[in-house]
Design goal:
The structure holds two protein chains of two kinds. By secondary structure, chain A is α/β, with parallel strands linked by helices. Helices cover 45% and strands 16% of the residues of chain A. Chain A is built from 18 helices and 14 strands. In chain A, the strands form three sheets. Chain A has a six-stranded parallel β-sheet with strand order 1-12-11-10-13-14, with helices on both faces. A four-stranded parallel β-sheet of chain A has the order 3-2-4-5, with helices on both faces. In chain A, α8 runs parallel beside α10 and α13 packs parallel to α14. Chain B is globular. Chain B starts with a strand and ends with a helix. In chain B, the strands form four sheets. Chain B has a five-stranded parallel β-sheet with strand order 11-10-9-12-13, sandwiched between helices. Chain B has a four-stranded parallel β-sheet with strand order 3-2-4-5, with helices on both faces. Chain B has a three-stranded parallel β-sheet with strand order 7-6-8, with helices on both faces. Chain B is built from 24 helices and 15 strands. The longest helix of chain B has 28 residues. In chain B, α13 runs parallel beside α14. By secondary structure, chain B is of the alpha/beta class. The chains are: A alpha/beta, B alpha/beta.
Chain lengths: 434, 572
């Protein structure tokens, strides 16, 4: 049913399992969002797309609870709520879906791309959204392209929703046989960060750079054998595989969080495009220096503090690398919902260089993990909003992790901002005379 | 399938969670896929509870679907009981759990636990949050009270002489709209009447407390959406009468006090005196006004409130709050109720009956677009509704106050903010009048700066002009006269035009078929300018009335004279 089940085993990881970073696998209650929540930022990134969840009232309620503050806007997402009569027979469900989509597209003639987003209920009843997307694409072509992917909790956790969405888009990317290498940056980035990276790549002399996802569905980047791609986010396993199937080449790199990560990430592109060391230094030195200065500001507050990260977005190992190496924090435990060893090889190698024993946990058993967290009494806990206030009430300081997905944190000029996100709760605890 | 963007109620298992979270010593094992733990945030973030909700999710994933989901459920239930040692266990499924049909009730029974296990059948594809809460509370009460009751034929023994009358308070739950403070306020009323509170449930109650429910003489039902099923069962089975009046508003609180006093056999007079709300008379050396004193009656009678008379108000929410608000609006604020509705189909009959008292047909829907269309059509001057209506009202530029769930974090205030009882009425007076004062300020601004009138509500017009939906178009048309009457002009050009230019545009013949509502009518530039001198929040209604008048009198071009003829025609 899922692309993840059929996925080939990840290519052999360059980094062998570390003696310093102990990796544990855990099963039990997961305290994470499902992939539907990816819609919250994807619908803002791709401005002419609409995300229609085919699911239950629970799905609609989740979207509403997660996006409650954006309610003022006319949102570009909604839910087709499956009702009792839809469960009676599948043929009816398809007719119903056609009716709902027709009504929606009449109401929103500005929509150029419609995502049918699968949910747990739609998957359990085996509603064939791929066929529905094909059928509806034929009906509404050429005005609207209809694409399906799954954001269900059965298949995806939180940011994997973006992976599923982008992977579903890859087959729609125009093909190119151009042999001049071009660079594709994959993963949603804040607009301001995207613009910074564009300038940086231009300064490196890499002329042809595209970003995926694009800001409009009509601006899908072309892909072909000469395409080199950099992942901007660590949660894009299926998307990377889909791009490789289209002939594109992945450039292994650390993820561009912090000065070190950004430098390594840009370096990977520079190496692939044969940029001279002098050009690289000239293009990045000033920004890197700014990043170092911004980080120096937060190091005194964070150095030596013990941090515990609960699994949430797959960003955790990358954040841990940043917190430990650039801010001097001590890692107690680093949880991640899923660990893609090949994509994270560079970051893990940097982590392993640390003279510390850190528990790295893939998966979750939240009660057991909470026990470990309470026993360790870390100075800072990075966790979801379901755990944050209860842990604060127990006297622990927390940094709610979802913010890390919604904030511009990538690149040199956001390194200080990223550090500030972790420093703020500690500073607040100091300030409040309560 | 139902196309929805916002939903008034969550799924029924969220209602069950609200009961479990409200209580102590209850744990809920929910068979649900990974991701459904988002519901925890409702309690930890929106209500800011400092503890995790007492719920263990099985969080099964695709790889578990091969047949061991039942085993995962059993493991989760066993672990939860071992870890949290609850007095009673709720077991159930979320919408996806329901589809895979693992039968949590049967699986939990097979575990042979030593505590009561209450299986919940919540029909996620038919029912919603409030029903789920009511059903869960009923099942809990029934399971825990039945064993301690004498056989059904046994009459209830009379209260021993010298023992104070007692009651239970049923309904306050987690994530309830102002339940925390309503409870304090109602306790104050009962205290003042000399009535003892036996058990409050579900908020704060343990399963052992529920077993003591039959000890009280009667039940006070604060939120029928949650407690009426359980209360009806207690009436039938334990012989406890239940109150039917909801003490929101001065009149309703008075009736509530009388009803409670009658059930308890006590004198309501001392409490009723505090509800009279006479203007405060300070004598030298007298204590300041007691806090438990109704100020709404005097505030509403004072001349400052005269301008509230006949303000047209639209009311929407859960049935309890909507019905109470309609009565207050009409009898205690002197408003005119122009629309009344609810999303709670279970209570549709009550709301229809209430609406009939104001000569209205109730709007029963859970589709927020339908509510939005109704508000746009009715041109109210104030909307009393939920979080959704706040957004609709903001888009349409209508003042609004929140009277009912669903609500967001700002409606779980730190300050004391009941809706019920004496202080509740005081709170409501301030809350409802506040946005109107702002509306009046806007109005004054408009009167003397008519050139900039479109700047009053540029956002709603912009948003409406961009939204192609029928409802939104109607909203734009109703609230933006120039956009509707100048069908040929690009809609979002209108707001930026000075009045003269807008008027000029309106004289150009439409190139596209005009909307049905303005068919062959057009406005003279003078009339349109004159229309813009009418205060913003009643302008839409004035335009509609004038067009209706023109149509009835066969006029094609509306002049300034026609505008005033229509005004005289429709004046009351």
């Amino acid at each position: 049913m899922s692309t993840s089940d059929t996925a080939s085993a990840p290519p052999p990881a360059p980094a062998t399992p570390s003696r310093c970073v102990e990796i544990h696998h855990e099963r039990g209650q997961h305290q994470v969002f499902c992939g539907l929540t990816g819609i919250i930022w994807l619908h803002r990134k791709i401005q002419d797309a609409f995300f229609l969840v085919v699911g239950s009232r629970t799905c609609a309620h989740l979207m509403q609870s997660a996006a409650g503050v954006m309610i003022f806007a006319e949102p570009r997402f909604g839910t087709a709520i499956i009702e009792d009569r839809d469960l009676a027979g599948l043929a009816d469900a398809h007719r119903e879906l056609d009716r709902v989509v027709t009504r929606l597209l009449e109401r929103r003639p500005d929509i150029r791309m419609l995502f049918l987003v699968g949910s747990c209920p739609s998957e359990v009843i085996k509603l064939d959204l791929a066929r529905a997307a094909e059928r509806l694409s034929a009906t509404f072509s050429p005005r609207v392209r209809v694409v399906d992917y799954t954001g269900s909790g059965l298949e995806t956790s939180f940011t994997q929703g973006e992976d599923a969405c982008l992977a579903a888009l890859v087959p729609s990317l125009p093909a190119t046989t151009d042999t001049t290498p071009s660079l594709l940056v994959v993963g949603t980035l804040a607009d301001v960060v995207e613009d910074q990276f564009r300038r940086q790549f231009a300064a490196l002399g890499i002329a042809r750079v595209d970003f995926f996802p694009p800001r409009r569905s009509t601006e899908l980047p072309a892909v072909g054998p000469a395409t080199r791609f950099l992942l901007a986010q660590p949660f894009l396993r299926d998307t990377a595989q889909a791009l490789e199937r289209r002939g594109a080449t992945h450039l292994p790199a650390p993820f561009p969080l912090g000065a070190e990560g950004t430098r390594g990430w840009l370096q990977a592109a520079a190496d692939a495009f044969a940029v001279s060391p002098a050009t690289f230094t000239a293009a990045t030195a000033a920004a890197q220096d700014r990043a170092e200065r911004a980080l120096a500001h937060y190091r005194p507050q964070l150095a030596g503090k013990r941090v515990f990260l609960f699994p949430d977005s797959q960003l955790e190992p990358v954040l841990a690398r940043f917190l430990a190496r650039e801010l001097g924090m001590t890692l107690v435990e680093v949880g991640t919902p899923f660990l893609h060893r090949a994509h994270l090889a560079a970051d893990l190698a940097l982590l392993e260089a640390l003279p510390t024993t850190t528990r790295l946990t893939e998966g979750q058993d939240v009660d057991a993990q909470l026990d470990r967290c309470r026993a360790a009494r870390p100075d800072l806990v990075v966790c979801g909003l379901g755990l944050a206030n209860p842990l604060e009430a127990e006297g622990l300081t927390t940094k709610w992790s979802i913010e890390l997905v919604f904030s511009p944190i990538h690149g040199f000029d956001q390194a200080g901002d990223l550090a500030e996100l972790f420093a703020r709760p500690l500073l607040r605890r100091q300030r409040l005379a309560l | 399938m139902q196309l929805t963007v916002w939903t008034y109620e969550g799924p029924p298992h969220v209602g069950a969670l609200r009961i479990a979270t409200a209580m102590q010593g209850v744990h809920y094992v929910l068979h649900a896929p990974q991701g459904d733990t988002y519901a925890d945030l409702l309690f930890t973030m929106i209500e800011r509870r400092p503890t995790r909700p007492p719920v263990s999710y099985t969080t099964f994933a695709a790889r578990d679907l091969g047949g061991n989901t039942a085993e995962a459920f059993k493991r989760t239930a066993r672990d939860a009981v071992a870890r949290y040692a609850p007095q009673a266990l709720l077991v159930g499924a979320s919408c996806t759990g329901e589809l895979i049909q693992d039968d949590p009730g049967g699986l939990a029974r097979a575990l042979g636990l030593s505590i009561p296990v209450i299986p919940l059948e919540l029909s996620a594809y038919q029912r919603k949050e409030n029903w789920g809460a009511a059903e869960t509370f009923y099942q809990l009460v029934r399971t825990l009270v039945e064993p301690v009751l004498p056989s059904p034929a046994t009459p209830r023994p009379p209260r021993a002489p010298g023992v104070a009358p007692s009651c239970n308070i049923l309904g306050p739950a987690a994530l309830g709209f102002r339940h925390r403070d309503d409870l304090v306020e109602v306790r104050r009323l009962l205290d003042a009447l000399g009535i003892r509170v036996n058990v409050v449930a579900p908020e704060g109650a343990t399963p052992a407390d529920l077993a003591r429910l039959p000890d009280a003489d009667f039940n006070v039902v604060l939120y029928p959406e949650i407690a009426s099923t359980a209360a009806a069962w207690l009436t039938r089975r334990a012989g406890q009468p239940a109150t039917t009046t909801i003490p929101i508003g001065i009149g309703a609180t008075r009736e509530f006090v009388e009803e409670v006093a009658r059930l308890a056999g006590v004198d309501p007079a001392p409490v009723l005196a505090r509800l009279a709300g006479l203007p405060p008379r300070r004598r030298a050396g007298a204590a300041p006004l007691a806090p438990a004193h109704a100020r709404l009656p005097w505030y509403s009678r004072s001349v400052d409130s005269t301008y509230l008379t006949g303000k047209r108000v639209f009311i929407f929410g859960d049935a309890t709050h909507a019905i109470a608000a309609a009565r207050m609006a009409s009898e205690e604020f002197g408003f005119t109720v122009v629309g009344l509705g609810t999303y709670a189909r279970e209570f549709a009959r009550d709301v229809r009956a209430a609406a009939a008292r104001y000569g209205l047909e109730a709007l029963i829907t859970d589709d927020y677009l339908e509510v939005e269309a109704k508000i746009a059509e009715l041109h109210p001057e104030l909307v009393l509704g939920t979080q959704m209506e706040r957004h609709t009202a903001k888009r349409l530029g209508v003042p609004c106050a929140v009277i009912s769930a669903p609500m967001h974090v700002q409606d779980f205030p730190a300050r004391y903010a009941p809706q019920m009882g004496i202080e509740g009425a005081n709170v409501i007076f301030d809350t409802w009048v506040h946005p109107l004062m702002m509306g009046l300020e806007e109005h004054l601004l408009t009167l003397f700066r008519e050139d900039f009138e479109f700047h009053e509500a540029p956002s709603h017009l912009g948003a409406a002009a961009r939204a192609p939906g029928a409802e939104a178009e109607r909203a734009a048309e109703s609230f933006a006269p120039s956009a509707a009457t100048t069908a040929s002009a690009p809609p979002d050009a209108a707001p930026s035009l000075p009045p003269s230019a807008a008027a000029a545009v309106s004289l150009t013949p439409p190139v596209a078929p005009a909307p049905a509502s303005s068919d062959t009518l057009s406005w003279s530039s003078e009339a349109e300018l004159e229309l813009k001198k009418i205060p913003f929040f009643v302008r839409g209604k004035a335009r509609r009335n004038t067009e209706r008048y023109a149509r009835e009198h066969g006029l094609a071009l509306i002049t300034v004279e026609d505008l005033y003829d229509a005004k005289a025609h429709f004046s009351r």
